[in-house]
Amino acid sequence: MSRTVYVNGAFVAEEDAKISVFDRGFLFADAVYEVSTVLDGKLVDNLAHMERLKRSLGELKMGSPVPVHDIPALMEELVTRNNVTEGMVYLQVSRGAADRDFVFPAEEKPSLVMFTQEKSVAVTGKSESGISVVTMQDLRWARRDIKTTQLLAQSIVKQEAAIQGADDAWMVEDGFITEGSSNNAFIITADGAIVTRQLSNSILHGITRRVVLEIAEAEGLTVEQRPFTIEEAQGAAEAFSTSASSFVMPVVTIDGKTISQGVPGPITRKLRERYIALARGAA
Ligand code: PDD
Hints:
Oligomer: single chain
Strand content: 25-35%
Bound molecules: N-(5'-phosphopyridoxyl)-D-alanine
Number of strands: 15
Largest sheet: 9 strands, mixed
Helix content: 25-40%
Distance between the termini: 27 Å
Number of domains: 2
Order of helices and strands: EEHEEHHEEHEHEEEEHEHEEEH
Shape: globular
Radius of gyration: 19 Å
């Protein structure tokens, strides 16, 4: 069935949507994006996604064709028009179309496109069984804190993981894990501390990461924001990743080594439950 998508001011059938071949998002990955989850027909933590969008735009000195504070209403309209109860809204702002030139166009006409995807997110087979990850060299640029559509490095590691029969890839730089292909990486130590890499330009500042750390602290768990190695992760009591589209995803093997008992651990399960309850409540 054809979806309704949003392109530069209009809601149109997906087969009628048009973007210029000169769009800089297409030519230079000169575009930023957000993925917001839909639960019970409502957007989860969407204002935090809008704040990050503003920051990404600011870092790249890119405008938005619609004021960012007006975007949530358009997203809600898209969710309604497509009757989405569970899934996500993808939105992308690019610097727009201009003759191909590495220098930014003097007069920018940024473009905004959005579409929905239906997907089960609250209960999935993988969230019950946990996933396998393999580690790979982080091939990305130095500004991973900006959520750009420059995703080829992530696509390559995830494809390589699939070839190896794994569910995801965790990326490694200078001996330490940065993050997952499209998620933040966490481990739980034998004494129950939650460890995840500190915020910097080396990782995306995940919205789910932030909420999960708040939940962990409210639960009285110790949080350590620091880098960790593959070996430390393989020896951890539990491991998981976080993202808008997977919430808290248990990781049960890393490079073929089973984490603890090879099933989602109790703290990971609890964080996932709490996160989903909070998301449903606040949505
Ligand atoms: N990815 N790190 C990377 C590299 C990501 O691409 C993402 C999100 C995250 C988690 O951020 P958040 O919790 O705000 O979703 C971390 C989205 C879901 C995607 O590209 O589909």
